[in-house]
């Protein structure tokens, strides 16, 4: 199994890049795990309490479950990947049966900041976009897809997202083998990554 880690700040375009990479690859050979699926369940908290969680700090992620699931996939076992609701700020009761594939892609803001997880990646990619570009994308996306308003996005950006980005995410770029500049759609970089994957899966 070839394991590819794709990190980058919020709004950098990780999810978009993943879709572009897997688009023309055989469906049966590529699987995706999202770090977002591994936000800790917080059933003990009210919705109001959940809105106060710092979702950009590594402690908000159940990394031990994520590492355990990746180990299972590497040994050929399927996993039940949790499903997270951004609208509810909580894990749902659903899960997605995820089978091991020749290529597994793990994507998320903090995946290169966690040493054990990072060491499991054969290729480490960091998607880079300018911070103002990322904020604009995040505003648009969170308002249209994640049930947020402008005040929520901007307050979170100032209070937790930006400081956590500077403390944990940006420094993790140093671990990347490949940095994809994604201020505009970067088809050349996507083609290169696809070529590398095709060579590996033969
Ligand atoms: N290169 C790009 N140029 C313009 N918009 C983009 C680009 N890449 C992604 N987007 C848009 O920005 C938003 C955030 O992208 P997404 O892939 O969800 O980022 P991430 O997963 O890193 O948070 C989405 O609405 C997406 O369509
Ligand atoms: O309940 C939640 C959980 C997380 N977030 C934000 O999501 C991003 C990470 O997701 P991307 O797809 O990489 O943007 C992170 O910055 C958290 O602040 C949230 O808003 N609500």
Tell me what you see in this structure.
42% of the residues lie in helices and 21% in strands. With 202 residues, the chain is α/β, with parallel strands linked by helices. It has a single domain (2-189), classed as Rossmann fold, CATH 3.40.50. The strands form 2 sheets. Strands 2-5-1-6-7 form a 5-stranded parallel β-sheet, covered by helices on one side. The chain has a two-stranded antiparallel sheet with strand order 3-4. α1 (14-23) crosses α7 and α5 crosses α6 (150-172). The radius of gyration is 16 Å and the shape is globular. 33% of the residues are buried. The site of ligand LLZGTKA7 has 13 residues, from α1 and α6.
Short description:
With about 200 residues, the protein is an alpha/beta fold.
Compute the gyration radius: what is it? 16 Å
Helix content: 40-55%
- Report the biggest beta sheet as strand number plus sense, adding barrel if it closes: 5 strands, parallel
Distance from N terminus to C terminus (CA atoms, Å) equals 12 Å
Bound molecules: adenosine-5'-diphosphate, ligand LLZGTKA7
Overall number of structural domains:
1
Assembly category: single chain
EC number: 2.7.1.48
Protein name: Uridine kinase
Family: Belongs to the uridine kinase family.
Keywords: ATP-binding, Cytoplasm, Kinase, Nucleotide-binding, Transferase
What structural keywords apply?
202 residues, alpha/beta, Rossmann fold, 5-stranded parallel β-sheet, 7 helices, 7 strands, globular, binds adenosine-5'-diphosphate, binds ligand LLZGTKA7
